[in-house]
Amino acid sequence: MQDNALLSNTLSRKRERAGVRADVSVQQARALRQASTTAEQLLWRHLRNRQLAGAKFRRQHPLGPYILDFVCLEQGLVVEIDGGQHADLQAQAYDQQRTVWLHQQGLRVLRFWNHDVLQQTNEVLAQLLQALTPALSRLREREVNTEDE
After folding, report:
1. pLDDT tens digits, residue range 48-89?
2. What keyword terms does UniProt attach to this protein (predicted)?
3. 3-state helix/strand/coil string of 22-77
4. CATH number at residue 58
5. I need a labelling partner for 83 at 20 to 30 A (CA). Which of 4, 38, 69, 96 fits?
């Protein structure tokens, strides 16, 4: 968690040095918040105000050259909600490049399709909860493995 705070501070300083570019990212992030998709709005209702596992999420958060749909910096978790345009091969290559960069920053990335968020909200939330609580996930795995023996 301390590493993620350091990452956030370092990236903030880089944005400050970039000057105008940082302002553009903030303006873009604000515009994206205003123009959220239905899936983003739905997920945000469940993530805001530390509703999921007490984790603090930010939405449309500028980080380096990207604007992240949702990020929990203290847990190092990025959540991306993808629409149909992400099925295109060129978009998939861009998403992969973005994911690699985020991993290099020490962040984990979970991606969900818009329709999954809208139609299977509880399953998406369960996956997010599992990602936020790895110790509980390992305990559940052990319980399942013990029951199988």
Report:
1. 999 999 999 999 998 988 889 999 999 999 999 988 666 677
2. Endonuclease, Hydrolase, Nuclease
3. HHHHHHHHHHHHHCCCHHHHHHHHHHHHHCCCCCCCEEEEEECCEEEEEEECCCCE
4. 3.40.960.10
5. 4
